[in-house]
Write a structure and sequence with these properties.
Length: 365
């Protein structure tokens, strides 16, 4: 997989000869397996009889014709996206295969002999002296404690990576369910074609490259794309408490997205009688003092200083250690600000809280 030019410098390898910049996703990165698996899942999604796990693929069919068709579609998709296959490791037209530690045949899924041989070949105790009976509390017996809480359904046993869990959490807090979003996205005039494009694994350029698909729902970055039918429901949820235009936009930018969402928020606030009544008479609030963070880089504060000698300076201050980062800038655009923040985050990690004074270059478009 090709790595975005802005991310290539973060994968620089220091060797005894020189520095090497990785242009493709390499082994050893913490997020590489999840990124690759998500890519192949989207690439082969919807193809009957095709299942891919990492670099292993299984293609099945109920008869020879369906098997040939699945193989043809699989090879065509691999050719379109430049995926190469190892012929020496490939097996064709098998009645049974070993896949991910299981044997698969016409009768279903079976345990392989090597997986259960240790249990089958275990010697049978002949008398009570061969047992060591020891009483242990539940807290000291982790295996038994784990098995006593073992989920019952296969869905509960499904392992999800951190990114998937975070994205599903974004959906769960909305006033609509993921099932409703999935069903309506396919019918939506704007999201329908985009959903099909993502499922087919086509390359998206520019801002469209930020769209991803998770559990049938479309996300723009970390924000959930809302179909036209449910936009009014989400707007009403954002407007609960009459927070005002600025706070509503900030809240929306953390969770939801659709085209012209900012304009819809502005219209909703302008047409609200309660918001208009209290607009010029806001309630006085007590002076807020920031709590001292419990660890470095938990909360950072950013602002611009200048102009000084025809330059503006982006200041980043860690509230815990008071560490200061300064970036000289000739232009204070959103793009340039994001580049500076990415450089800082690459060295210190992502902060839990970022505080700014809502200045325009720091805003998210």
């Amino acid at each position: 997989m090709k790595v975005h030019p802005e991310s290539q410098k973060l994968l620089t390898i220091n060797t005894h000869k020189r520095l090497y910049v990785c242009k493709r996703l390499m082994y050893g990165l913490n997020g590489a397996p999840a990124i690759w698996q998500r890519y192949v899942d989207g690439l082969f999604q919807g193809m009957q009889g095709v299942k891919v796990f990492m670099d292993d693929a299984r293609i099945t069919g109920s008869d020879e014709m369906s098997h040939f068709k699945a193989l043809e579609e699989f090879f065509k998709k691999c050719k379109e996206h430049g995926l190469k296959l190892n012929l020496s490791k490939s097996q064709f037209f098998q009645n049974e295969i070993n896949f991910l530690g299981h044997k698969i045949d016409a009768n279903g899924l079976h345990k392989t002999d090597e997986k259960i041989s240790a249990v089958v070949k275990a010697s049978v105790p002949k008398n009570v002296q061969e047992f060591d009976i020891v009483f242990r509390k539940t807290a000291d017996h982790g295996n038994a404690d784990f098995l006593s809480r073992l989920p019952k359904t296969s869905e509960e046993l499904e392992v999800k990576d951190d990114i998937t869990i975070f994205q599903m959490t974004q959906i769960e807090i909305l006033p609509v369910t993921s099932r409703e979003l999935r069903q309506e996205a396919e019918k939506d005039v704007e999201l329908g074609p985009l959903l099909r494009t993502l499922r087919e694994g086509r390359n998206l350029q520019g801002r469209e490259a930020q769209y991803t698909i998770e559990d049938g729902c479309i996300l723009y970055g970390q924000r959930v794309c809302i179909p036209k039918k449910y936009q009014k429901n989400v707007l009403d949820e954002l407007h609960t408490g009459h927070l005002g235009m600025v706070k509503m936009k900030a809240l929306a930018r953390s969770f939801v997205y659709w085209k012209d969402i900012d304009k819809d928020i502005e219209d909703a606030v302008r047409n609200c009688v309660d918001c208009a009544r209290h607009k010029t008479d806001p309630a006085k609030a007590k002076v807020h003092y920031w709590e001292y963070p419990s660890m470095p880089w938990e909360r950072i504060h950013i602002d611009f200083a200048g102009p000084i000698f025809e330059h503006m300076f982006l200041l980043i201050v860690d509230a815990h250690s008071k560490w200061l980062e300064v970036y000289p800038m000739k232009v204070t655009t959103t793009k340039k600000t994001i580049e500076c923040l990415k450089d800082s985050f690459a060295r210190f990690g992502l902060p839990r809280v970022l505080v700014s004074d809502n200045v325009i270059p720091v805003g998210i478009p």
